[in-house]
């Protein structure tokens, strides 16, 4: 269970007075029940990635808290946060692959560093993950030699290799062709159902995202303007939600 | 036609309006305050990072693979530039001393003349500046790139402490590299000096060696330089790691961080060289 209450974050405005600040999150509250696949949608710079980073304890809010399975991550020190992060898998918007490691070593990294598994088991799990994201035979390639979509798929493989009970995906299908994108969404959904993991997924690919989510939240300019089931999102009368979900060009956005 | 002048308008000889003075003062205080805050932030950041590194040494939590990888990258790959720098440094010391040595027929003191400044000052200082430019700048660029591409955040999200995994091995590697490279530089600089003495002054290397070991130079001269190398290693390590981790603003931010690291390292090296020279006799 992830419970977010009143998250607020502001940053200084460059070349402005020290008192002038820009809000990137303003009183954001929502909950994600255990085993739920929650989609976080919204236009660019709405604060979606910031929310994911705060759930992982990578950023501290100015106010509010994030409770992950009973632990308030906003109150924990960096060392104590490690026990919470062991429950997390995370895909970053820019993939964040370690560029000095091969694809295989990137995926194996958490298994070797955190779980100290036997090498044959590490290798079999790496190959299984690569097969899931259709990258068989890529284990010895370096990230610098991959396309954007391939990097994204390696990121997905690394985020899921530990079979963490909570997984955060920031744009899992960005840069992928429609077929691969659909495959990735279906794969992530199947794995979530099989493992019962709690998943929060940020994506701009609404057509596909809304086919797999249980609940949806929409953010706009740092505020959560909608929180409900996927069906409620599709049927919403809120003008901004309606325009965004249905991809209308006319409207308040 | 008469023009009515407002009683509030400044006369022809009046200075700037009080509002303008206040605005200028605010700008001046803002600039000074900003600079002081920035300096305090940098010094504080370095202090906190150093504290975190030291905390990971008790008990030692060192990733041996990372330490080995960094030692190879920083020390082994720096050998060519250290060899070239040291050989020519020794040669230059002899070239500078040559006219006086000839004038006073002091060939027997050539080893001391070249060795004293080399061991105590020139070898550690030039090696530190070379390592700062090659290793320190590279370290900042690598860490800065890892920060702006979210690789450091990815480590944290994987429950891996970046200070233990990334910073501690780099910190130790830089300090060890500088110590070992200074030792090499001492030997190579004396070698360069000896053979330049042979070429320019016809001083046999054996005579040169005898004048180095005759008693005018002692182990204290070598130790002095090596103590400096460790201090310089700390400066380069903490500076390059701090500016790397503090990088913001994408690729241009990495460039700014490297620049700040090189300037801060060089300044720190000269400042601490003065202090160590003063304290360690």
Characterization of this structure:
The complex is a heterodimer of chains A (253) and B (281). Chain A is of the alpha/beta class and 253 residues long. Chain A has a domain at 1-87 and 166-173 and 198-253: Rossmann fold (3-Layer(aba) Sandwich), CATH 3.40.50. Chain A is 38% helix and 25% strand. Chain A is built from nine helices and ten strands. In chain A, the strands form two sheets. In chain A, strands 6-7-8-3-9-10 form a six-stranded mixed β-sheet, sandwiched between helices. Chain A has a four-stranded antiparallel β-sheet with strand order 2-1-4-5, with helices on one face. Chain A is globular, with a radius of gyration of 19 Å. The model of chain A has no long low-confidence stretch (mean pLDDT 92). Chain B is mainly α. Chain B has one domain (79-279). Chain B contains nine helices and no strands. The A-B interface holds A 53, 56-58, 78-79, 81-83, 85-86, 88, 90, 92-94, 96-99, 109-110, 113-114 and B 145, 149-151, 153-154, 156-161, 165.
């Amino acid at each position: 269970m992830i419970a977010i209450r009143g998250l607020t974050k502001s940053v200084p405005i460059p070349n402005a007075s020290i008192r002038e600040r820009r809000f990137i999150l303003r009183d954001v509250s929502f909950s994600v029940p255990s085993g739920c696949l929650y989609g976080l949608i919204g236009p660019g710079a709405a604060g979606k990635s910031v929310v994911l980073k705060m759930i992982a304890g990578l950023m501290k809010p100015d106010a509010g808290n994030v409770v992950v399975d009973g632990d308030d991550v906003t109150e924990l020190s960096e060392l104590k946060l490690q026990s919470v992060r062991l429950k997390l898998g995370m895909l970053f918007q820019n993939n964040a692959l370690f560029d000095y490691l091969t694809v295989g070593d990137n995926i194996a990294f958490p298994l070797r560093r955190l779980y100290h598994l036997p090498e044959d088991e590490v290798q079999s799990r790496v190959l299984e993950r690569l097969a899931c994201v259709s990258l068989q035979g890529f284990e010895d390639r370096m990230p610098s030699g991959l396309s954007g979509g391939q990097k994204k798929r390696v990121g997905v493989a690394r985020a899921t290799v530990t079979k963490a009970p909570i997984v955060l995906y920031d744009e899992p299908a960005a840069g992928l062709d429609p077929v691969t994108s659909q495959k990735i969404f279906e794969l992530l959904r199947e794995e979530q159902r099989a493992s019962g993991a709690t998943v929060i997924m940020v994506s701009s690919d609404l057509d596909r995202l809304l086919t797999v989510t249980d609940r949806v939240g929409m953010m706009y300019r740092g505020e959560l303007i909608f929180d409900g089931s996927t069906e409620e999102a599709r049927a919403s009368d809120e003008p901004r939600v309606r325009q965004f979900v249905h991809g209308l060009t006319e409207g308040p956005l | 036609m008469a023009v009515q002048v407002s009683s509030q308008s400044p006369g022809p000889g009046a200075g700037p309006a009080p509002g303008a003075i206040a605005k200028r003062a605010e700008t001046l205080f803002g600039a000074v305050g900003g600079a002081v805050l920035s300096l305090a932030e940098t010094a504080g950041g370095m202090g906190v990072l150093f504290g975190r590194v030291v905390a990971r040494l008790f008990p030692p939590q060192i990733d041996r693979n990372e330490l080995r990888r960094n030692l190879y990258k920083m020390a082994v790959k720096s050998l060519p530039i250290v060899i070239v720098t040291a050989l020519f440094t020794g040669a230059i010391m002899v070239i500078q001393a040559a006219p006086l040595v000839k004038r006073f027929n002091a060939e027997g003191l050539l080893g001391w003349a070249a060795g004293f400044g080399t061991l105590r000052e020139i070898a550690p200082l030039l090696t530190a500046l070379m390592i700062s430019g090659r290793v320190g700048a590279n370290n900042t660029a690598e860490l800065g790139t890892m920060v702006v591409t979210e690789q450091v955040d990815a480590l944290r999200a994987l429950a891996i402490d970046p200070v233990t995994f990334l910073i501690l091995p780099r910190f130790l590697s830089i300090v060890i590299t500088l110590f070992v490279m200074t030792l090499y530089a001492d030997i190579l600089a004396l070698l360069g000096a000896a053979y330049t003495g042979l070429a320019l002054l016809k001083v046999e290397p054996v005579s040169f060696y005898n004048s180095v070991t005759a008693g005018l130079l002692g182990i204290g001269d070598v130790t002095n330089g090596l103590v400096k190398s460790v201090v310089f290693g700390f400066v380069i390590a903490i500076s390059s790691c701090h500016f790397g981790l503090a990088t913001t603003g994408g690729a241009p931010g990495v460039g700014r961080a490297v620049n700040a690291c090189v300037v801060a390292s060089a300044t720190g090296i000269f400042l601490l060289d003065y202090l160590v020279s003063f304290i360690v006799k």
